[in-house]
Amino acid sequence: MQRQGDIVLGFDPMDEIHAEFETLLARTLDCADHELIARLEALTAHLRAHFAAEDAWMRDTDFPPGQCHIDEHAAVLRSADEVLPLVAGGQPGVGRSFVQELAKWFPSHADHLDSALAAWMSKRRFGGKPVVLHRKPKASPSVGMPSETPR
Ligand SMILES: [Fe+2]
Ligand SMILES: [Fe+2]
Q1: Residue 5 belongs to some domain of the structure
Q2: Res 135 pLDDT > 90
Q3: Cα separation of 92 and 86, whole Å?
C-alpha cells in the first residue's frame, strides 16, 4: 500500500517519493548529534534520487517550465553536499540549520513546482488533472535554500 505523506499531489510515484522524504526529514530533525551525519547522508542520498526522478520526468516528457525546477533541485543538492563535510568535521549546528531550512523549503517547492509537474504527469497518464490537496502555506524559506518562485 502506498504511504501517504502530508503533501499529496495526485501523481502516485511522486507522492511515494515525497512520503519517503517526509519520513527521512522527520528522522533527521529528531535525532541525537551522534546520529546526525548518518541521517544527513541518508537524506542526501534520498534527495539525489528524488530530484533525479523528477528531473527525468521533466526531461523525458518535455515539461515546458522544467528548467527552473531542475535548477532548484541542483541548488538544494549543492547545499547538502556543502553541509555534509562540515557536519562530519564537527559542526552539527550547520546540519541542524540545513535540515530546518529544508523543512521550510519543501512545502513551497511542492506547492509551486512539484504540483505543476504532478498535474502534467497525471494528465499524460490518465488524461485529466489529479485531485490536489493543499496545506496551509508556511513561512517563506530563508538563507541557504533557493528561492521558492520560478526564475
Ligand atoms: Fe519533489
Ligand atoms: Fe521538485
Answers
A1: no
A2: no
A3: 8
